[in-house]
Specification:
single chain; about 425 residues; alpha/beta; 8-stranded mixed β-sheet; 4-stranded antiparallel β-sheet
C-alpha cells in the first residue's frame, strides 16, 4: 500500500466537508470518496509540535519538540520520524514542500527531497511547483510501495491577495468580528484555501491517472487552527480541531466518523494499514475500529502548548462532553506574540483595556457550550468532573514525562530563542535566548 500524506498550514476545519462555504471542491470530493473524521484533534496547536506529535507518534513534549524548529527547538531522536521508520520498512519515501519537524530536512529520513526552491516564488506558486513535483513522483514506475509527504505553505499567513471573492458576501469565522476589514481578510484566507485545494486536486488526479487509487491511502489534514485570535496556539476547539480525511486503499467510502481521534493515533494506524509493526515509542491508538466500524477508540484526547513565538505553557484534556484546560503561566498577561499579526489581531492590540478571558483552570461543557464561553471550574456543581479531569491530566503528564509535571516550567533549550511574553508581535527582535 502506498501512502500520501497531504497537509496544509493553519487550516483547522475550515474546508467545505465541515460545512463551511469555502472553495474546496477537491477536498470535498476526497471526503465523499473516503472517511471524514468530525472530531479529530491536534496534539499541539503550534506548527512544529503538532507535526512532531503526528510524525513521531508521541506527544510533543515526549518527542522533545516544545517549540518551533526554526527557532532552535528539536526532537530528541528523529529516527522515530515516520519517514525514517517507513524507509527502514521497505517504502520509498519522499518529501515535496513544507516540513516543520527539523531545521535540516535531511535528518528526517526521506530518501528523496523533491521540494522546489522558494526563491522568487509567491506562496501559491511555490505550492503549485511542489504539487507538480509530487505528481511527477507519483507517476514514476517503481517496484516497491511509497510514502509521500506533500506539505503546503497555504493557508499560512501572509495570505495571497484576494482577486476572486466579494467581502460583502462572506462572514469571518467565530470568534472574529464581522467588520469590513475582517471580511476582506477572510476573503484572502478563502483565496489561500482555494490554492491548497487546487494542489490537492492535482495530486489526487495523478493517483487516478496512474491507476493507483485502490493501492494508495490518501490522507489530508492540517496542523491546527487558523491564524486568528482565539484559534491557532490556543487549546480551544478552534485551535486544536483539525480536518482529517482518509481515502482509498480499501477504506470505506462516503462515511463520517464522529468519535474522538488524536493526531498521535495516525502513526500506529498507518503502520497497521500498511502491514508493518507499530514501533514501541508510539503512544497513539490504532484507529482501524473507528475507520471501518465506527467504534470509539479513546475516551479523551490531550493537547498542549509550551512555546510558540513566546512561552505560554498550557495543557488540556478533552472528552466528548467536557474540556479542562490548565495554564502554567501568569494568565493576566495578554500574550500577543503568540497571535500572528493580522487585521483581526489589530483590534485587540488597539483596545488595551480588553483582556482575553483566561484563567489558570478552565472547565467547559463542550456539548452545551461548544464555543467555550462559560468557565465552570468554580461552579460547585461541577467539582467532581473538575477533580476527575484534573487527575487524568496529571496522570497523563506524569506518564508521558511532561517537564511541566515536575518543575512547572520548561526552560529554553540551549540555542533556542523566544519572544518576550509581554511583547506585541512575533516579528519583534527582542528575544530571550537559551
Amino acid at each position: 500500500m502506498n501512502i500520501i500524506y497531504m497537509h496544509t498550514h493553519d487550516s483547522g476545519r475550515y474546508t467545505s466537508p465541515y460545512g463551511y462555504n469555502l472553495p474546496t471542491p477537491n477536498i470535498m470530493k476526497l471526503a465523499e470518496d473516503g472517511v471524514l473524521f468530525r472530531n479529530a484533534y491536534s496534539a499541539a496547536p503550534t506548527c512544529s509540535p503538532s507535526r512532531a506529535a503526528l510524525l513521531c507518534g508521541m506527544y510533543a513534549h515526549t518527542a522533545g519538540m516544545t517549540g518551533l524548529a526554526h527557532r532552535g527547538f528539536s526532537c530528541y531522536d528523529l529516527r522515530c520520524h515516520m519517514a525514517s521508520y517507513f524507509t527502514k520498512n521497505g517504502f520509498e519515501t519522499a518529501l515535496s514542500g513544507i516540513q516543520h519537524e527539523a531545521n535540516d530536512t535531511s535528518r528526517l529520513g526521506y530518501e528523496k527531497i523533491l521540494t522546489r526552491p522558494r526563491r522568487g516564488l509567491t506562496s501559491s506558486e511555490w505550492d503549485f511547483a511542489n504539487a507538480d513535483a509530487a505528481v511527477s513522483f507519483i507517476e514514476q514506475p517503481r517496484d516497491k510501495p511509497f510514502f509521500l509527504s506533500f506539505g503546503m505553505f497555504n493557508t499560512h499567513r501572509e495570505y495571497p491577495e484576494n482577486d476572486r471573492f466579494n467581502p460583502d458576501y462572506v462572514i469571518p469565522p467565530f470568534p472574529v468580528a464581522d467588520t469590513p476589514e475582517n471580511r476582506a481578510d477572510w476573503c484572502c484566507y478563502m483565496k489561500s484555501v482555494a490554492v491548497a485545494d487546487e494542489c490537492v486536486g492535482r495530486v489526487v488526479a495523478a493517483v487516478d491517472r496512474a491507476g493507483l487509487r485502490e493501492d494508495t491511502l490518501i490522507m489530508y489534514t492540517t496542523d491546527h487552527g487558523p491564524a486568528f485570535p482565539g484559534m491557532k496556539c490556543t487549546l480551544y476547539d478552534t485551535g486544536i480541531g483539525v480536518s482529517l480525511v482518509m481515502s482509498g486503499a480499501g477504506l470505506p467510502r462516503g462515511v463520517c466518523r464522529n468519535e474522538l481521534i488524536s493526531q498521535v493515533d495516525i502513526y500506529p494506524t498507518l503502520c497497521r494499514l500498511a502491514g508493518i509493526d507499530i514501533p514501541a515509542w508510539c503512544v497513539g491508538v490504532d484507529a482501524r475500529p473507528l475507520i471501518f466500524d465506527g467504534k470509539p477508540i479513546r475516551g479523551e484526547v490531550f493537547a498542549e502548548v509550551t512555546y510558540h513565538a513566546a512561552y505560554q505553557p498550557m495543557r488540556a484534556i478533552r472528552t466528548k462532553k467536557y474540556k479542562y484546560i490548565r495554564a502554567f503561566y501568569d494568565t493576566e498577561i495578554q500574550c500577543y506574540p503568540n497571535i500572528d499579526d493580522s487585521t483581526p489581531k489589530n483590534y485587540l492590540v488597539n483596545s488595551p483595556e480588553f483582556r482575553w478571558p483566561m484563567s489558570p483552570r478552565m472547565l467547559f461543557d463542550v456539548e452545551c457550550d461548544p464555543v467555550e464561553r462559560v468557565n465552570l471550574a468554580r461552579d460547585p456543581a461541577y467539582s467532581v468532573i473538575l477533580a476527575e479531569l484534573s487527575a487524568k491530566l496529571d496522570c497523563f503528564m506524569r506518564e508521558t514525562n511532561d517537564p511541566l509535571y515536575a518543575s512547572r516550567s520548561v526552560p529554553l533549550p540551549s540555542g533556542a530563542f523566544a519572544n518576550r511574553m509581554d511583547g506585541i508581535s512575533p516579528n519583534e527582535d527582542d528575544f530571550i535566548r537559551g
